[in-house]
Structures are given as C-alpha cells and as structure tokens.
Amino acid sequence: ASRRAIEAAGRQPGEIDLIVVATTTPDQVFPSTACLLQSRLDIHGCAAFDVQAVCTGFVYAMGVADNSIKAGSARCALVVGAETFSRLLNWKDRTTCVLFGDGAGAVVLEASDEPGILSTHLHADGDYASLLQVPHGVSQGYDAMQENAAFVEMRGNEVFKMAVNTLGRIVDETLEKNNLRKSDIDWLIPHQANIRIINATARKLRMSLDHVVVTVQDHGNTSAASVPLAFDAAVREGRIKRGETLLMEAFGGGFTWGSVLAKY
C-alpha cells in the first residue's frame, strides 16, 4: 500500500520525511510498525511512529501529519492505516467475527500552496471504553494474551447509537468550522463499520448514497484501514474527481471519533 501511494504521488521513498502508521494490531510490541515499515521501504532518518485510535486511527494519523506539515516539521508525509483484525476475533462469537477484516491503505501528504486538507477534527471520550474493547494486554489481562484468547468485545446496540449521534455532531462541527453547507460536500468517505451507520450519516448530510463511498460489502470493517481503502477504490474507479470536496469521518473504540475535510 505504501509503495503504491508513493508511486502514485510521483515521489521516491527517500523524499518521505515523516511516517505515521495508524494500527491497533502492530507487528510487535516494539519497535513501532512505522519503524519496521520505514526499514522495508529503505527510508532512513525521518520521524516514524504509530498512532492507535482503532477505527478512527487513519483520521487521527492524517490530522497529525497535516499539523506537522503546517508547522514546517515535515514536507512529505506517508500516512498509513493497516490492520490484521482477524487476529483479535473469537470465531465462535458471531456478533463480532462476521464484521471485521484485514487490510492496509496509504496516502502521501505534501506541503502545497493549493488547498488539500482544509481541516481536521479529532475527539475522544475514554468513559465509553468498555463498550468496544480488547480488554487484554501486557499489563491487564495478560493471561488471556498468553492463552491466545485476547478478543474483541463489543456491545453492538450501544455502539451503534453512540456512533450515529457522534458522527452527526462531527459532520456539523466540520461544516460549521469551514462555513460550508451540506450541499458543498461532493463525497462522503465514511469509516466502513456497517451499512446502517453509513446510511444514518448520509441522511444527516442529506446526501444521496450515490455520493457516499461504500466498500464494507467487499472487505468488512478493517478498522484504521477502512477509510484509505474506500478512498482508493473511489479514486481508481474514477468516481472522485480532482477539485471535489471530500469529507472523511470515523468512529472507533475509546471512544474516538474525527473527520478530515479535504479538496482532492
């Protein structure tokens, strides 16, 4: 995914000066997946680190990279969302195992005088952690880790209600901060959690599903990879055109949520 993004941007790996990888399923406890990726791409010396915000991870990573470029600490950033969620699934629990998938997507962000990312909006509320979690790790629930029993636990109905309400608010916030109307958005690129949440967000925007990128039927919920995978599919299929205004939004465990408003 990273090599394809770098090639599509017309850049060489050596021109990348920041790598941000959004993942909940890192290759190792450490080093970071970003550092391992940096080595595989034969890139040396630039900052490389992971961001963990579950399904909102790619949106968080875009926000971090965008702010780094605006601050002048980077000029050409590789932003990746990658997951192997199949490793976290209890295949006897149909409330979760049928929903998730594995995947990776990447983009290259560069400093430019022309508008690209117009704004990013990132939020979290840890009080809701128990509604969607893997409650095991090296400090808590370590026995389950050793027994290969560290699985996703989700209270689906409660997550659905929170997701719909929260994504509605993030849409309003994004539009208000940019003095835009709902009709100004050409494409909605949502996190591919499930079609019910996607439909509810589209209704909030009063947007036809013809202008909502939906790929959940192809690869399920790939967590941090879902937004870049959907974006890539729409670009390759010729649906998204240069100059169009895109709203990317996501909601995930934590809870975390956020949006990216961009001009493609």
From TrEMBL:
One Pfam match: ACP_syn_III
Question: Where is each Beta-ketoacyl-[acyl-carrier-protein] synthase III C-terminal domain found?
Answer: 175-263
UniProt pathway annotation? Lipid metabolism
What the entry lists under PANTHER family is as follows: 3-OXOACYL-[ACYL-CARRIER-PROTEIN] SYNTHASE, BETA-KETOACYL-[ACYL-CARRIER-PROTEIN] SYNTHASE III, CHLOROPLASTIC
The keyword Transmembrane helix is assigned to this record: no
Q: Does the keyword DNA damage apply?
A: no
Give the UniProt family note: Belongs to the thiolase-like superfamily. FabH family.
Checking InterPro entries in the record gives: ACP_syn_III_C, ACP_syn_III_N, FabH, Thiolase-like
UniProt-listed GO biological process terms: fatty acid biosynthetic process
Q: Which residues form the Beta-ketoacyl-[acyl-carrier-protein] synthase III N-terminal domain?
A: 49-126
Q: Which GO terms describe its molecular function?
A: 3-oxoacyl-[acyl-carrier-protein] synthase activity
Tell me the protein's name: 3-oxoacyl-ACP synthase
This protein's UniProt keywords:
Fatty acid biosynthesis, Fatty acid metabolism, Lipid biosynthesis, Lipid metabolism, Multifunctional enzyme, Transferase
